[in-house]
């Protein structure tokens, strides 16, 4: 990542196979660059085989009299002429001292560091070529295939096609594998074999994709006499790289230069074009003052964006800074601190998810779903209902597009179920006057129905917004000065013995032990308050309450409010016992009011739990799942429902059916990606990283699957949370699963506050690390942090697989910024 320079044009060279002439053609590019007056940098990250055959030395030799313009380097060299992963393994086996095989991160960092070093020596337009080994999927030192190992660097590429028998297939397959991983392929270059004539077919294939194919004659057979071989080789290069510059190699060179220039010009123009064309969500455009306020994302990988900082990079470096680069990168990594609006599960551009999407796209595209089925949808529905969050209570899965539409479906289900059961008590007018019971601060999406199910706060609203229902002001949980505290709203605090709003608890884990707390005095206070409030609502002239909707545990958009789970559990219990009919003893039969869990945000391990109902100790009648479901790759939502909810729509009349749908219902690509995502999450749940995180939060390795589903823990370090909670300008902190929420002390607290944004603004910029140390970002470059705020609340969010090294560095950046403000 972040390796784009104004004066250093870099291309990575991949081969469609072994023995396709990759080094020969790369050498021709090197020679042509040098002949055009450029300084040239050649890098062979990994070399296997005897030194006499080393490509980095051979490239220098093939440059001939132009070699003085060429700098050549190999980073990892092994004598064994086998695949790099085998060469590294065998080197350990025969060595008396064990050699540590570089991890993918260490390998990429080494490549990136060398490229950055070369950039410091550039004073005029120069060229660099990074030649890989073998084919596109040949393993690197760790065993990861080259396409995946090099992907964090996101270098534009040249593909060396295969001119041999079967080469058409291997070249196209290599190209498609590169496209699946997001690579930019600028050109295809291969030998002009007059018998197989692969270049003819490939020219048409790639021409349709606006990628030029250049072909040159193959080199002569190697001569047994080294002197004669050298003469023949030099003659060959003089033919394909002539002094006249009239050859396909120079055409390729010119095209690559144009691609480089065009990419930079486009990035530089994007801020202005964006301000002229785009209407952003949740942004007051009146506050966007200049092009510098537009965050231009060139690519993304793992937990990081690669963002354009061209104007900043083009400023002269400080002469006092010995480590500053004479040629700074036009891109820099930026940590995706909101997990891209809470969608990212496994980081950006995960190759397994991209392949899953391609699998379904190639097999189905999209297909009509009513009265039909396809395997991705069926398998996902069965998994969610029988083995996932619906296990034990749900019987059906309804597919829709995103969280908001999934909630629209849930509301329709609940209202119909209530109206059907209460048909004898509801007249025609009353049937249309139904309300929702919920919590203040709730948010269920921006479609009209989902908005109407929330209190009208003037924030997430529109002119048609007609809030229908009643919303309890909920108690919340937070860590203050290192202690876990439950904060009661005034109406509930007034009912306690001492009338205080802040109730210290034994510990965070005890606070989330619902079964134990159900016997506490506070549970009795909650119960009496809820019962009395519901009785007043029943006696009033407002709408008839027809459903209870909760965001379990955490209300995200409302300000990262960690609701006291005891209050939510007691509320559910009271609501279910409030009906005139006897409460049902079956988890698939609703009583009182249908209960909807909006788990779009918290579900599927976002807060460290597979589903919130395990911790709450009670199941919903309807639940909604999205965001993490598809790993952040494509939109998809699933609404799960119990059999009694489903039965409310059964009759002989079509108008009684759930007449709700979306053109892309059960989108096969989304369903296939969801299945792949859930497979990976299952493995993560048992990983060493999660086990270590649970141990840091004093959650022992569970002896049973049930224990795994209720432990309260986070990927954020508990000591870091403790320290931040004690800072002067921090009101409170909470960490749960991937989520870190920091509430800033602010007298004008609320969504319209700018305190959190102002306090953390400097964290957006990349901060160089001291000395030669590398950051945790891909390639080791200094990185900024992209974050979102909710008024006086700043939150940071991880993927489920964010490396601990990245988490620790982000923690350090957050602490440093907060500490500087305190010191100031």
UniProtKB/TrEMBL annotation:
Gene Ontology CC annotation, any one: mitochondrion
A Pfam cross-reference name: Aminotran_3
InterPro entries: Aminotrans_3, Aminotrans_3_PPA_site, DTB_synth_BioD, P-loop_NTPase, PyrdxlP-dep_Trfase, PyrdxlP-dep_Trfase_major
PROSITE patterns: AA_TRANSFER_CLASS_3
Key words, A-Z: Aminotransferase, Transferase
Domain of life per record: Eukaryota
Alphabetized GO MF terms: adenosylmethionine-8-amino-7-oxononanoate transaminase activity; ATP binding; dethiobiotin synthase activity; magnesium ion binding; pyridoxal phosphate binding
GO biological process: biotin biosynthetic process
Localization (cell): Mitochondrion
SUPFAM superfamilies reported in the protein's UniProt record: P-loop containing nucleoside triphosphate hydrolases, PLP-dependent transferases
Designated name of the protein: Onanonoxo-7-onima-8-eninoihtemlysoneda
